[in-house]
Inverse folding.
């Protein structure tokens, strides 16, 4: 009689020390992997932001091809004369670009005989457009703009945007000055040294500094805590910081820690993206020389810019 003996192997469980070692290794791998994933995602968002600005730059040149001028910074007329802060219809450069951004139906929904804040323009005014938004910027869909006098009366609801036109180096707040007080002319028009300003009609030949040496559009991040929201729609007559919602000023470098609402900024590390006058998109470092930064903002300052 043959007796078979089977010898079984007893499985040994992980010890506490081995388990802790495995957990530590996984934690280290995740710590190494997560920043790489986040960087890859930010790189993708930055690429989308660059593509948005490239579309805007192309649209600006297409507009110029059709109208022989770049769109006005904002349109504001009262009684047939210039009125920077209290005129109609308020449409900004972004509104004027709509037909060149495949948004002709939206542009046609805008009644230019009425102010942009008029209830008849609600559907047009509250439409969110991804081409004007940086995917790196955490933001609400819309914001409420209040009256400049009290800061409490809601005048309109506007869509968020992250790209503002270049007003140049002149203070936008000064556009509320009386006619004849610079930068407001005797006729009531607020003028500046950038590409976009009140009822502007800047042509390519007016950019004597060279289109490759002049900024047209740049980024601005949303700051919900400070109530800083930008839009593509335009200037709401009598609105709080109405000009700053659509235009930027180059008194501080991008992402300056002592920033004002009308500055340029972004959530991209190290600087912000801009469209130059030739339609090209460039990343401008937050460490750019201030005098060079000022030179880039002007269309006819006569400065020699060079590479940046």
């Amino acid at each position: 009689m043959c007796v078979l003996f089977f010898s079984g192997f007893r499985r040994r469980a992980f010890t506490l020390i081995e388990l802790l070692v495995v957990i530590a290794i996984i934690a280290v791998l995740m710590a190494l992997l997560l920043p790489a994933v986040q960087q890859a995602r930010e790189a993708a968002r930055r690429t989308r932001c660059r593509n948005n600005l490239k579309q805007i730059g192309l649209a600006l040149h297409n507009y110029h091809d059709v109208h022989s001028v770049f769109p006005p910074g904002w349109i504001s007329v009262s009684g047939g004369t210039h009125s920077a802060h209290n005129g109609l219809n308020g449409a900004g450069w972004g509104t004027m670009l709509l037909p060149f951004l495949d948004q002709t139906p939206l542009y046609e929904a805008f009644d230019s005989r009425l102010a942009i804040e008029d209830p008849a323009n609600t559907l047009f005014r509250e439409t969110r457009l991804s081409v004007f938004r940086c995917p790196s910027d955490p933001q609400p869909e819309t914001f409420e703009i209040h009256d400049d006098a009290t800061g409490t009366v809601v005048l309109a609801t506007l869509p968020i945007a992250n790209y503002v036109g270049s007003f140049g180096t002149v203070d936008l707040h000064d556009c509320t000055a009386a006619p004849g007080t610079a930068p407001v002319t005797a006729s009531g028009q607020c003028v500046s040294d950038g590409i976009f300003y009140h009822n502007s009609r800047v042509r390519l030949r007016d950019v004597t500094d060279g289109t490759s040496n002049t900024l047209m559009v740049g980024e601005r991040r949303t700051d919900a805590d400070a109530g800083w929201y930008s839009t593509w729609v335009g200037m709401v007559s009598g609105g709080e910081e109405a000009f700053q919602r659509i235009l930027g000023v180059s008194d501080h470098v991008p992402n300056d820690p002592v920033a004002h609402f009308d500055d340029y900024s972004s959530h991209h590390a190290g600087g912000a993206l801009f469209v130059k006058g030739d339609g090209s998109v460039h990343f401008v470092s937050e460490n750019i020389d201030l005098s060079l930064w000022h030179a880039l903002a002007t269309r006819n300052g006569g400065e020699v810019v060079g590479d940046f």
